[in-house]
Amino acid sequence: MPDLSPNYLISLELRELLVQKLGVLQKDNVLLQQSLREQQIKTTAQTEDLFLELLEVADALEALLDYLENNPSPSPEFIERLPRSIGAVNRKFLGVLGKRQLLPIKLQEGTEPDFNLCRVIDREERTDIPDQTITKIVRRGFHLGEKVLRPTEVITAKSDDGH
To answer: pTM for this one?
Structure first.
């Protein structure tokens, strides 16, 4: 049976150009694979660092829980220090997040909500402050760089005069 595959003739100049381009593509492929491996190694190291820092936060919480479990009637001094201890654990946790550019959204009660940064989850009747004023921050919001990861949840004033 005869060979029916087509034969293409290309000029020597075109052949050399194709060989050169193929060489460039192979070189680019090797560089991309190397870059991908380096990025995977970097990502793995960053993930491990994050987990180690989160484990420190977990260790601090576990130490508090262990103490409470082993001391059903904690001393008044411990109870007095407990809010500061929990605050320290919270600061440590927020520090871990902050190192990775995950930062709390800064809003204040008594201001009007920025709907790009917060979500109104409830309204309360108030006559002492203007309508739409934030009366309470229910849950803190966070942004990752410029992106709002989780909006702040707020309660706002609702004037009783129908506004």
So the answer is: 0.70
